[in-house]
Amino acid sequence: xxxxxxxxxxxxxxxxxxxxxxxxxxxxxxxxxxxxxxxxxxxxxxxxxxxxxxxxxxxxxxxxxxxxxxxxxxxxxxxxxxxxxxxxxxxxxxxxxxxxxxxxxxxxxxxxxxxxxxxxxxxxxxxxxxxxxxxxxxxxxxxxxxxxxxxxxxxxxxxxxxxxxxxxxxxxxxxxxxxxxxxxxxxxxxxxxxxxxxxxxxxxxxxxxxxxxxxxxxxxxxxxxxxxxxxxxxxxxxxxxxxxxxxxxxxxxxxxxxxxxxxxxxxxxxxxxxxxxxxxxxxxxxxxxxxxxxxxxxxxxxxxxxxxxxxxxxxxxxxxxxxxxxxxxxxxxxxxxxxxxxxxxxxxxxxxxxxxxxxxxxxxxxxx
Amino acid sequence: xxxxxxxxxxxxxxxxxxxxxxxxxxxxxxxxxxxxxxxxxxxxxxxxxxxxxxxxxxxxxxxxxxxxxxxxxxxxxxxxxxxxxxxxxxxxxxxxxxxxxxxxxxxxxxxxxxxxxxxxxxxxxxxxxxxxxxxxxxxxxxxxxxxxxxxxxxxxxxxxxxxxxxxxxxxxxxxxxxxxxxxxxxxxxxxxxxxxxxxxxxxxxxxxxxxxxxxxxxxxxxxxxxxxxxxxxxxxxxxxxxxxxxxxxxxxxxxxxxxxxxxxxxxxxxxxxxxxxxxxxxxxxxxxxxxxxxxxxxxxxxxxxxxxxxxxxxxxxxxxxxxxxxxxxxxxxxxxxxxxxxxxxxxxxxxxxxxxxxxxxxxxxxxxxxxxxxxxxxxxxxxxxxxxxxxxxxxxxxxxxxxxxxxxxxxxxxxxxxxxxxxxxxxxxxxxxxxxxxxxxxxxxxxxxxxxxxxxxxxxxxxxxxxxxxxxxxxxxxxxxxxxxxxxxxxxxxxxxxxxxxxxxxxxxxxxxxxxxxxxxxxxxxxxxxxxxxxxxxxxxxxxxxxxxxxxxxxxxxxxxxxxxxxxxxxxxxxxxxxxxxxxxxxxxxxxxxxxxxxxxxxxxxxxxxxxxxxxxxxxxxxxxxxxxxxxxxxxxxxxxxxxxxxxx
Lengths: 368, 649
Description:
heterodimer; A: alpha/beta; 8-stranded mixed beta sheet; 3-stranded antiparallel beta sheet; B: alpha/beta; 7-stranded mixed beta sheet; 6-stranded parallel beta sheet; 22 helices
């Protein structure tokens, strides 16, 4: 890939409205930092090539090259990416269920990984007292539980990865949305310089993602509610149409239509619903399987961990009904077409797909 | 500093111009001296303060030049002779009071010493303050040497008391900061007694009916009294030994000059070997012009060149004089600012003057070898570009670093309105170009007031007004009160380094000492600001994280004026007190990644403390041990933790 510098990153991604605030560019140097939903460039580093540009999921990404590195095979043509196994799962641990968004599968998998020494720490998102998300390294069960639950806002979690000292030998897990996963995958493909060794990352868990909420959303919530009292946020799936806040005293709701104006416009260019480059991808069980997760195992590392979790009885699983799988693929494909359409509308040129480095035949098939 | 009170009249002492002025004040019998620090006047008061106790003189740094002038006038009203010293801008501050003082009259003689800075070597603007002499009706003296500086200051006190007007001595950098041989005069032996009597008996207008109203009030109709008093002065000036002529009886060209331009003119004429053709009339008494003397000298020549800096002051006075000469008088050609021969800005030097004389006299003048310019350019390639910088360890570097970051993070194009002090360097790279406006003392807060009340026009940029600790007491308090009262949205950042640093570490109302080095009441800055009803926060700029986040919080808060005191002692003051550095600094070259992505020399390229250097060959940073103050701040800047600080035991 052609690598450019921080100036081009700001112009081509941030100012162009493509930034998802994943934090992949931030924390690795004194110049870039995430602040209240914006990537701030404190000073111009003046380098013509930078890792900020290289690892951004919204700069050109050669998906074949990345897939070769991560999975050893070319990029999958499947609507939901590489699938070794797909099923429904939920935690057997009551304490995890209490904190969990849906089935508690991610927290359980990380818990097992920590206990087995597969990882020493998990880079994931933790919410502050007023529910602002940011990167955090959880190194024990207590800390894992603190990270459970969705903030529904963009989280610069990869800043925490960038902050890890380069001499560190800690084995790491990373949890993120598809954009975070893409950034980590680019790191695996083009190994970092003066950063922590990317081979320390033993496990990447990606979350299914539709969109997140930004541009004044946090202030909107803060003005309406005392966020320090909130235990959990939730957007229950169709046919429900609310944004819910759970506090100790009960549940508050906001009409979904009221918050749709806060949907991150950058998400309209995102085509990866199921985090196709992760070892394990985890989504909600949706309305039909409330309290469960949809789980896709993609890599050897993912399969190995899942095996251990099964043997330990940490997760309860069941097969995914064919209708659910068909629906998932249908929605994922629809998403890809829509994103591609939005990208082409933005560039005005079918040949300029911004960050998407897809094989041409795949593009043509999607556009047909 | 030499002891300027040595009682040895007739002996020679090597004195700085300002020290000579102080000596002149002693010889003139002052009992009171007041001043505010300002280059190039700052040395005058401390020289007096050094001997104040022995000489039974009261000396003080005043909070600003207006109060200094007023305080001196108060002493004068009680019959005590006083000296007030200030730089040109200080005179601007004192003018309102001075304009009124001239109308009411004075008691004991007052010498007002104003030191100008042509070329703005250490000022924000340049002015010729002699014009104020004309405006306010003050007899004006301009010394050209340390000797004259002394003699004129003494004489100013005498004239002032005799005539009943403040008398002005106008110096410049080159005279105030020169050192020269000064022949000392007699020191007065009489005691001083202060009593405020009804002076006005002496100066009351001789008009019936009005006398009962009292004339302490400066009325417009007392203006003619000023002219009456001033009319007594030319006679003294005509006979003054401060005016002289050197040169041929009949000159092809007559230079009329004053002050520091006298040595420039003398040297220029000598350099051109034109002593037999060019004469120089040097005036020391420049207002009111000694017209008879000048007229007499004009008869030597048909060509006149005026060599005076900044304003065509003598040029104008002489042209007025010539315009009134009887018709049939020989036609004179003038060379000066009006003709375009002499620049009307900046300071002069002998080469500049020689060039002008050479062109008028049609002689060639080659001040240096023709290849000189070329040689300099070659040399310049070897010498690195050096700009002004904060001292290593200066708390203002840290403060501007946090301000730069906070404004960028805030993201609304905020900026700093600046003021006068070391932190003025915030205008340039030293302070990361953060300061965007700049004028007079207290103007940072003043200008911010307007910017903070433009909400109705869609303005939402954060406004950070800046002032120093001494500047705050001098001028910024009214502006802060205005901002609170008028709900102007700005943050007053008080750069408190606990001294008046830029002018030489003088004390101020917050430092707890006075000019004599004695303990004095220290004004509590936070308490003062809080009592005005503003939110006040105090931060140590070396705590980068806390200072940046406090700034962000204050900017996000909005609302009316608030105060952030960024406080840390001036490094030079700390070093003098503690005599050793807090840390030993070194670079761990294994950790330093130099020009790589992840740094690219943030310490030497951006942060730019002069204690840090770049080893080009090794591609690593290094500490310049001769310059590093060991403050430890750079260790917090390095993204790799490659700058190591070790506590010095």
